[in-house]
Specification:
Blueprint: H1 2-11, H2 19-49, H3 53-83, H4 94-122
Helix pairs in contact: 2-3, 2-4, 3-4
Length: 128
């Protein structure tokens, strides 16, 4: 009886989802929203100084944080995928789904932050 349970648990993919996978899904939109609010807050000071340095620094930090969360999601999902290999046509594990979703979320919000960063480079902060 215990041998059958052990074989069955080894045949199924792992359904546990780590905190790093949740970070890959939830943090990119939060980082993007914080970056956008910080840019709105910093634009008045950038106009007074005539420099976009603070806006560019906020954008760079946001890009690095989103890339870091994507890396965390990828490594955590890769580790869980190594533990439980899933054959073609089988149900994909939650961790693999979360890994792919986290990587896609990071890619989407990296593009959003880059688009906002380009606007900070191209336009003068005093333009309204």
């Amino acid at each position: 009886m215990t041998d059958e349970l052990a074989e069955e648990s080894q045949a199924r993919p792992s359904m546990g989802v780590s905190a790093a996978l949740w970070a890959g899904v939830l943090f990119p939109p939060a980082i993007w929203a914080i970056q956008m609010q910080l840019n709105y807050w910093a634009v008045r000071g950038a106009c007074a100084r005539g420099s976009n340095l603070r806006l560019n620094a906020i954008t760079l930090v946001a890009l690095l944080l989103i890339a870091l969360t994507g890396l965390c999601a990828w490594t955590s999902g890769y580790r869980s995928a190594e533990v439980a290999r899933v054959e073609w046509g089988a149900v994909v594990s939650n961790s693999r789904f979360m890994m792919i979703l986290g990587i896609l979320m990071c890619a989407i919000f990296l593009l959003a932050v880059i688009a906002q960063g380009v606007a900070g480079i191209v336009f003068n902060p005093c333009q309204s």
